[in-house]
Specification:
The chain has about 130 residues and is mainly alpha-helical. Helices cover about 70% and strands about 0% of the residues.
Length: about 130
Protein backbone atom coordinates (compact mmCIF):
# COMPACT_ATOMS: atom_id res chain seq x y z
CA UNK A 1 0.00 0.00 0.00
CA UNK A 2 1.11 3.56 -0.72
CA UNK A 3 1.27 6.26 1.95
CA UNK A 4 -1.76 7.93 0.32
CA UNK A 5 -3.76 4.71 0.60
CA UNK A 6 -2.74 4.26 4.23
CA UNK A 7 -3.76 7.84 4.99
CA UNK A 8 -7.05 7.31 3.16
CA UNK A 9 -7.77 4.21 5.26
CA UNK A 10 -6.94 6.05 8.49
CA UNK A 11 -8.95 9.13 7.54
CA UNK A 12 -12.15 7.33 6.55
CA UNK A 13 -11.93 4.87 9.43
CA UNK A 14 -11.65 7.75 11.91
CA UNK A 15 -14.35 9.78 10.15
CA UNK A 16 -16.68 6.78 10.13
CA UNK A 17 -16.01 6.01 13.79
CA UNK A 18 -16.98 9.56 14.73
CA UNK A 19 -20.46 8.88 13.33
CA UNK A 20 -20.87 6.28 16.08
CA UNK A 21 -19.07 8.20 18.82
CA UNK A 22 -20.77 11.58 18.21
CA UNK A 23 -23.89 10.91 16.12
CA UNK A 24 -25.65 14.04 17.33
CA UNK A 25 -23.02 16.22 15.70
CA UNK A 26 -23.85 14.69 12.31
CA UNK A 27 -27.59 14.60 12.88
CA UNK A 28 -27.52 18.36 13.48
CA UNK A 29 -26.10 19.08 10.03
CA UNK A 30 -28.59 16.99 8.08
CA UNK A 31 -31.24 18.84 6.08
CA UNK A 32 -34.73 18.59 7.54
CA UNK A 33 -36.13 16.96 4.41
CA UNK A 34 -33.91 13.91 4.94
CA UNK A 35 -35.70 11.25 7.01
CA UNK A 36 -34.26 8.97 9.69
CA UNK A 37 -31.35 11.19 10.70
CA UNK A 38 -29.91 8.85 13.32
CA UNK A 39 -30.11 5.77 11.14
CA UNK A 40 -28.55 7.53 8.15
CA UNK A 41 -25.73 8.91 10.27
CA UNK A 42 -24.91 5.39 11.43
CA UNK A 43 -25.23 4.03 7.89
CA UNK A 44 -22.89 6.69 6.49
CA UNK A 45 -20.40 5.98 9.25
CA UNK A 46 -20.52 2.28 8.44
CA UNK A 47 -20.14 3.11 4.73
CA UNK A 48 -17.01 5.14 5.46
CA UNK A 49 -15.48 2.42 7.63
CA UNK A 50 -16.40 -0.32 5.16
CA UNK A 51 -14.99 1.66 2.26
CA UNK A 52 -11.80 2.35 4.17
CA UNK A 53 -11.31 -1.30 5.02
CA UNK A 54 -11.99 -2.23 1.40
CA UNK A 55 -9.03 -0.10 0.33
CA UNK A 56 -6.61 -2.37 2.21
CA UNK A 57 -6.70 -5.45 -0.06
CA UNK A 58 -5.54 -4.67 -3.59
CA UNK A 59 -8.28 -6.91 -4.91
CA UNK A 60 -11.09 -4.68 -3.56
CA UNK A 61 -9.31 -1.33 -3.63
CA UNK A 62 -10.88 0.12 -6.78
CA UNK A 63 -14.41 -0.91 -5.86
CA UNK A 64 -13.90 0.47 -2.35
CA UNK A 65 -12.74 3.75 -3.88
CA UNK A 66 -15.90 3.98 -5.94
CA UNK A 67 -17.91 3.17 -2.80
CA UNK A 68 -16.21 6.01 -0.93
CA UNK A 69 -16.87 8.41 -3.81
CA UNK A 70 -20.55 7.44 -3.74
CA UNK A 71 -20.57 8.05 0.01
CA UNK A 72 -18.99 11.49 -0.42
CA UNK A 73 -21.57 12.38 -3.05
CA UNK A 74 -24.39 11.14 -0.81
CA UNK A 75 -23.35 13.33 2.12
CA UNK A 76 -22.70 16.43 -0.01
CA UNK A 77 -26.24 17.82 0.48
CA UNK A 78 -25.50 18.15 4.21
CA UNK A 79 -22.49 20.32 3.39
CA UNK A 80 -24.57 22.47 1.04
CA UNK A 81 -27.27 22.73 3.72
CA UNK A 82 -24.69 23.98 6.22
CA UNK A 83 -23.39 26.62 3.78
CA UNK A 84 -26.91 27.83 3.01
CA UNK A 85 -27.88 28.04 6.70
CA UNK A 86 -24.85 29.46 8.53
CA UNK A 87 -27.12 30.83 11.28
CA UNK A 88 -27.62 27.22 12.47
CA UNK A 89 -23.84 26.81 12.94
CA UNK A 90 -22.65 29.91 14.82
CA UNK A 91 -19.39 28.26 15.86
CA UNK A 92 -18.32 28.04 12.20
CA UNK A 93 -17.73 31.03 9.96
CA UNK A 94 -19.85 31.25 6.81
CA UNK A 95 -16.64 31.39 4.77
CA UNK A 96 -15.49 28.10 6.23
CA UNK A 97 -18.85 26.50 5.48
CA UNK A 98 -18.58 27.56 1.82
CA UNK A 99 -14.90 26.54 1.65
CA UNK A 100 -15.86 22.99 2.59
CA UNK A 101 -17.79 22.53 -0.65
CA UNK A 102 -14.80 22.46 -3.03
CA UNK A 103 -12.93 20.35 -0.48
CA UNK A 104 -15.48 17.63 -1.16
CA UNK A 105 -14.36 17.58 -4.81
CA UNK A 106 -10.75 17.42 -3.64
CA UNK A 107 -11.62 14.45 -1.39
CA UNK A 108 -13.26 12.68 -4.35
CA UNK A 109 -10.15 13.29 -6.46
CA UNK A 110 -7.94 11.92 -3.65
CA UNK A 111 -10.03 8.76 -3.30
CA UNK A 112 -10.00 8.13 -7.05
CA UNK A 113 -6.27 8.80 -7.35
CA UNK A 114 -5.36 6.64 -4.35
CA UNK A 115 -7.48 3.70 -5.45
CA UNK A 116 -6.88 3.62 -9.19
CA UNK A 117 -5.14 0.49 -10.45
CA UNK A 118 -1.37 0.78 -10.41
CA UNK A 119 0.38 0.51 -13.75
CA UNK A 120 1.51 -3.01 -14.44
CA UNK A 121 -0.47 -4.50 -11.54
CA UNK A 122 -3.12 -6.32 -13.66
CA UNK A 123 -5.69 -4.96 -11.17
CA UNK A 124 -9.14 -4.48 -12.67
CA UNK A 125 -12.70 -4.08 -11.47
CA UNK A 126 -13.57 -7.57 -12.67
CA UNK A 127 -10.65 -9.32 -11.03
CA UNK A 128 -11.71 -11.91 -8.44
Amino acid sequence: MTWSQRLLVAFFTAAGALHFLRPGMYEDIMPGYVPAHHELVLASGAAEIGGALGVVPQRTRRLAGLWLVATLVAVFPANVHMALHPDRYPSLSPGLLWARLPLQALAIWWVLAATRPQRGSHETLTET
